[in-house]
Fold this protein.
Amino acid sequence: MPRVPATERRRQLVAAAFRVIAKEGFAAVTTRRVCAEAGASLASFHYCFASKQELLTELTEQTVAALVEAQASKVHIRDSVQGSLRATLREYWATVEAEPDREPVLMALTQHALNEPTLAGVAQQQYAAYHRTARTTLEIIADGCGVTWSVPVPQLARMLVVVTDGVTLAWLVDRDGAAALTALDAFADQLATYAR
Amino acid sequence: MPRVPATERRRQLVAAAFRVIAKEGFAAVTTRRVCAEAGASLASFHYCFASKQELLTELTEQTVAALVEAQASKVHIRDSVQGSLRATLREYWATVEAEPDREPVLMALTQHALNEPTLAGVAQQQYAAYHRTARTTLEIIADGCGVTWSVPVPQLARMLVVVTDGVTLAWLVDRDGAAALTALDAFADQLATYAR
DNA sequence: CCAGGACTGGGTCGATCGTCCAAGACGCTT
DNA sequence: AAGCGTCTTGGACGATCGACCCAGTCCTGG
């Protein structure tokens, strides 16, 4: 077993946990399974993490951060609000399909966070981040296209999150990427009618 | 311990498993925990079920069936398509809030089914049922209001499922019922523009 | 070059998991 | 009342879980 600094080990273990969830589901995340995936010994796990929970918390935060960052600065401005929304949502979908494991893993982590009192805050921060990103996106588009929104931005942001979440969830079940894109386009057109 | 027919015991155990997931999450569903919740002995579990999986499969099927039935014949016809969609979606939301445990449990079961190869079919049947219900709803409304849909009904049905799923998921995290209703109303108005 | 902190290996602990067994108690039929 | 399925009982099995410990090995700074 190669000798590795603890901070690097932590990163390896977090990445390994991600892969385990992606391949075998949340229930498969045991300390032993994660260590095997990372090519580390069981002892190194508790040398790097005080507990399994600590790993899960860090994994959740990192994955959320990665998703938020991946789509944060990906707002596309076209000559119409409708075109901008379409392009931005298509960009979102590109990031989902580019990293097809991230969303399933995030869903599993969210599901777990909802039932774990110690992680309740993490799930809410996750969705707060979603809403923040959605609000920023809407404001950038409104700015870039020289319009205002005819309904409160937070409400529109929630609708945006609802759409992306719902499309993603449906896609997780049937993996129909074409249908997902069609739906996203349609919703983009719908949301564009709120521009004034 | 009262003496009870095996079929009745099965029912009790399935109901108990539902309550356990609702209260403590999917991970808490152990044979012992379920038996304790049902007030049954551990041995009676494997007298009624060949395995834990058998219980989970039956629970999933029953819960999906209950949800589908609960909203199957709840289509409301108003004098406009917009009004009909609003009323129908509000009715949907009423069933969700009337049985606030069902959706969280279903989410957990879906999540589990996605990672369990033996249950992959169950999750897809679950969503097939959703789409069927959505299609029927759309056709009844179109009939009742004397209009047709300007986009294919299956595509509209998917959008309807996306909206209900997305709204529900967001509500699971922040439990903001008012925001959920606002979003549903807005989406109802949007979908109504597809009527012709 | 060497002392001390960083890291690993393997083993062990108690708890809990799903599953199963042998035997007893119940209640309906005859 | 006797017999026979039906159901309950308590305990036990092996496996696996998270967590921990300690002896030993590596590497680096002084």
Summary: The longest helix of chain B spans residues 120-145. Residues 21 and 27 of chain B are 8 Å apart (CA to CA). The mean pLDDT of chain B is 93. Chain B touches chain A at residues 24-28, 104, 107-108, 110-112, 114-116, 123-124, 126-127, 151, 155, 158-159, 161-167, 169-170, 172-174, 179, 182-183, 186-187, 190, 193 (CB under 8 Å).
